[in-house]
Amino acid sequence: MQRKHSVLRNYPVVGHLRYLLEDIRPELQQYFIERNWDGRPYDRDTRSIIYERAKGIHGEQAFGTERDVEAIDYEYLVHSTVPATAPDDPPRVLIGGPDCTKPYSMSLLNVSAMSFGALSANALRALNKGAAMGGFAHDTGEGGLSPYHEEFGGDLVWEIGTGYFSVRTKDGDFDPEEFADKSSRDQVKCVSLKLSQGAKPGIGGVLPAAKVTKEIAKIREVPKGQKCVSPPTHRVFSTPTELIEFVARMRELSGGKPAGFKLCVGSRTDVLAICKAILEVGTAPDFIIVDGAEGGTGAAPLEFEDHVGMPLTQGLMTVHNALVGTGLRDRIKIGASGKISAGNDIVKRLIQGADYTNAARAMMMAVGCIQAQMCHTDKCPVGVATQNHRRARALDVGDKSQRVQRFQEATVAEAVQIMAAMGVTHPSQLDPTMLRRNVSSTANQSYAEVYEWLAPRQLLSEPPQSWADDWAIASADTFHSRRQETHR
Ligand SMILES: Cc1cc2nc3c(=O)[nH]c(=O)nc-3n(C[C@H](O)[C@H](O)[C@H](O)COP(=O)(O)O)c2cc1C
């Protein structure tokens, strides 16, 4: 009957062992239940912070840092000797370039794309209800627009991927009429085209046949009980120019809503090719979401999770600098995702070039994920990442939606407080001198020194030597320029 602990709702007797051990001796709990903790993507401290914030506990920590602040690669944010006063309302960012007629005011932290199929209906309900309560955006993921995304009216970024789920013809092509119809719904605030995601760039998703229930089949518009594969490649474009034209078409079909795309960066030439295409076509996406190689997934081959794709820091700075260098940065907002779970993560990404951030796994933890890492087996013990109704019942939507709202609010508030400590009241006042990194055992440097930052339109006038080759090779007509160059 209790609603707070999903583990106990699914395992009412044995589940107490976890809490008992937690009470008696945390070390025992760690040994018996979480003994592989070190291998998990989020460490114990990070998870504790997410849980506490979600539960509304704003606990300060006793005793001081546990980080090795002398380590090479340790990074820190630069505080001011005269901190500012944090604004009462957290800053937001307006998404929508000159061709967008319905700009959207985006929060600094939003729910990243996770599909119905990967997540349970209850998890999506809780995320969307939390987004509605807290006034932030919820990305649908590529698995289609489901009733569970829409039930509580929270703002949606509607994502379509290579499968065009919810907007596909029988043959798997994009259906423009259906897209126009569904994207015109008021709750859909932005439309997004997924090119790739950090955990598995270059391959599509697979939903095993057993998980393609009648309901999923209906929402995705695919046959029931058959393996549901998103192909690796899009049918709607094959060149940078066609990509930009298609994103513009999405904006038009949606009635002028912000349209953009999400990618994990592969090479700098790809990004520059897209910039050239924007300049040639004469219209720009309203946003680009950069996902880092460190990003999560419901299911992907380990090799792809660990060895393919650019990490967020590099990917984000590549996209930001390419847009600055081509004079396009003012028209396009940049979102960032990849292990964002705390206020300092948000501020760091804003300094590296983002305008706003999205979190997937931290939001999963806010709805009760315990990092069992069983999403792909359909046996999630807490009802978050499963299509099994009995398991999903454990997730209480009322309680968990509050946790989502609290986690988002407290994390953004922390980011705003950190910025105030740095002497700034708005992200536009941040700059790369404000993030520093230990570069050796005796020296540290700011991001302004460690990395190269392009001046506005620099690539158009006089590309620096370090960018000149890539800029010359990049072509609006192909995503294969690097390969051709190497083979020549
Ligand atoms: C269970 C799960 C399902 C996901 N499904 C999608 C998806 O449908 N489309 C997408 O673009 N990204 C998807 N992602 C990737 C996330 O949106 C996000 O980009 C990535 O996990 C990085 O964020 P994180 O580190 O905060 O988890 C998924 C991630 C998870 C964990």
TrEMBL record:
Instruction: Supply the InterPro entries for this chain.
Output: Aldolase_TIM, GltB, Glu_synthdom, YerD
Q: Name the family the entry cites.
A: Belongs to the glutamate synthase family.
Domain of life here?
A: Bacteria
User: Where does the signal peptide begin and end?
Assistant: none
The family database entries (SUPFAM superfamilies) matched by this protein are listed as: FMN-linked oxidoreductases (SSF51395)
Which Pfam families does the UniProt record give? Answer: Glu_synthase
Q: Which residues form the Glutamate synthase domain?
A: 108-424
User: Which protein is depicted?
Assistant: FMN-binding glutamate synthase family protein
Which organism does this sequence originate in? Arsenicicoccus piscis
